[in-house]
Amino acid sequence: MANDVIPLPRPTALSEPHWNGCREGILRVQQCQRCKTCVFIPQPCCTHCQSNDLNWLDCSGKGKVYSHTTVHRAPRPQFEVPYVVAIIELEEGWHMLSNVLGCPVEDVHVNMPVCVEFREITDEITLPYFVPTR
Ligand SMILES: [Zn+2]
């Protein structure tokens, strides 16, 4: 059964609030309380000013495609090709790597408005994907 699932993240104490947020349907990012930089992936201190005063910020889940590529050859048999890997620029000014679903791969373009859509993969892991904003 485990072989039918794509490789999944393993939450750590540091990243757990992010993954809990995904399960609750909230896209959550660390934000530095000193310089307000959003920090992703989760870090022990701010990547801009090194402050360790980081809080978790609930985000809108809205953003746009910053960059993208289409994968045509499955890295593992569990992946259905073709699919789009994209860097998403979130409204709050941070970036994350994800997939764009819900439209033909050739329709994905830079600056395309997208919003987060959560998919429950296992009891523990819900992954954030992005779909075109309608
Ligand atoms: Zn900072």
Question: If you had to describe this structure to a student in words, what would you say it looks like?
Answer:
With 134 residues, this protein is mainly β. The protein has one domain. The protein is built from one helix and eight strands. It has a five-stranded antiparallel beta sheet. It is globular and about 40 Å long. The model has no long low-confidence stretch (mean pLDDT 95). The structure holds zinc ion. Zinc ion binds next to loops.
Q: What is the first-to-last residue Cα distance?
A: 35 Å
Q: Report the structural category.
A: mainly beta
Estimate the strand proportion.
Answer: 35-45%
- Quaternary organisation of the protein chains: single chain
Please give a quick description of this structure:
The chain is 7% helix and 38% strand. The protein is mainly beta and 134 residues long. The chain is globular.
Key terms:
134 residues; mainly beta; five-stranded antiparallel sheet; three-stranded antiparallel sheet; 1 helix; 38% strand; globular; binds zinc ion
Helix-strand layout with pairing:
Layout: H1 16-24, E1 28-32, E2 38-39, E3 54-58, E4 62-71, E5 83-90, E6 95-100, E7 113-120, E8 126-132
Antiparallel strand pairs: 1-2, 1-3, 4-5, 4-7, 5-6, 7-8
Bound molecules: zinc ion (ZN).
Zinc ion (ZN) is lined by residues 32, 34-35, 37, 46, 48-49, 51.
